[in-house]
Amino acid sequence: MCVGAVQCCGAEFDPPELKCSCNAALHEVCMCTCVTSSNPAGQIAGRRRCPETRALDWSVEYKTPDFTSTGMYAAMPRDILMVVGNEIIEAPMAWRARFFEYRAYRPLIKEYFRKGAKWTTAPKPTMADELYDQGYPIRSVEDRHKLAAEGKFVTTEHEPCFDAADFIRAGTDLFVQRSQVTNFMGIEWMRRHLAPTYKVHIISFIDPNPMHIDATFNIIGPGLVLSNPDRPCRQIEMFKKAGWTVVKPPMPLIPDDHPLWMSSKWLSMNVLMLDEKRVMVDANETTIQKMFENLGIKTIKVNIRHANSLGGGFHCWTTDVRRRGTLQSYFH
Predict the structure, then answer these.
(1) What average pLDDT does range 48-59 have in this prediction?
(2) Given 79, 163, 166, 214, which residue is catalytic?
(3) Active site residue 212
């Protein structure tokens, strides 16, 4: 499992004390789950980014033939890395601030490649002006609801783009949403690349600003999924007909005054399943802990509130690299 970290950021909302708090929380994530001398039963090999990446300063401005930008923070491996079987896929991304984010993970990817993993980089978009709807109205929530319902997003179909976090996988089936950062060309690239072993299904939600699926629709076991009640899935009957159990998580408990950038309180459901019977969940979210316990799933509690502020929960801050089990279809 790859675990993120916060380095020197280009984002203005990243004070030093927040970075320290985030990294402390992520260290606790590793200590609670990984095989260490203090936790020999951890059963998970957690990897942080390599020392080689510490030279990256995301606040430095860079320029391509098509745009000029600074970076963000490269803190969320789930956004850029997707593992399917023995293949690690680097997502092309859509934000100019994340154009070079892959560099933070290259040392680890090269290590896995040397050990036998397949390594694929999806076509890198130029991120020229044509990729973005320059007249996209960012006004009211009602406007964005209407545009999303009409299939209009800030990204166009000029070239393929996608974030890995807009996909979620169950065995041989991957579910993906068209979002602000993932377009249909990107989805089609993935569909062709993974066929015929894997099937890619497009699903959608009543969401005014779709971006990353795992705080909206999070698969927590074979035929078991958390579905955000504030962002209903339009194809939910498809899952019910396939015999899946759809669980609506309780309302988040995060306070109204807690700072959140690029995310919502629904990071409470952005949990990390360690296996079918163990889940990593925020220590403050007692109601969702109770929900998991009622499902027969043991909760491993870690306080990740400060990391939430930077836009991610447990699922965002980690990427599964290798899991035990037999490849099968859970969706018929």
Answers:
(1) 65
(2) 163
(3) yes
